[in-house]
Write a structure and sequence with these properties.
3 helices; about 70% helix; mainly alpha
Amino acid sequence: MLIIDSKDCENIDKALKKYKKKFEKSRTLLELRNRQAFTKPSVRRREQVQKAIYKQQIASGKIEL
């Protein structure tokens, strides 16, 4: 549960902005989306390897953005 400390004189818009930022940093929505569908560990590992290969190719200069 997210708790936002707001002062009495603080605007509700600022408090809402703080809440949204804190919610985004906690990655709650991302976790909920990941839990909606099960991905096999082998598929998850394969995706991680593909991302690592892609990042390595960008770093070595083989792929230009």
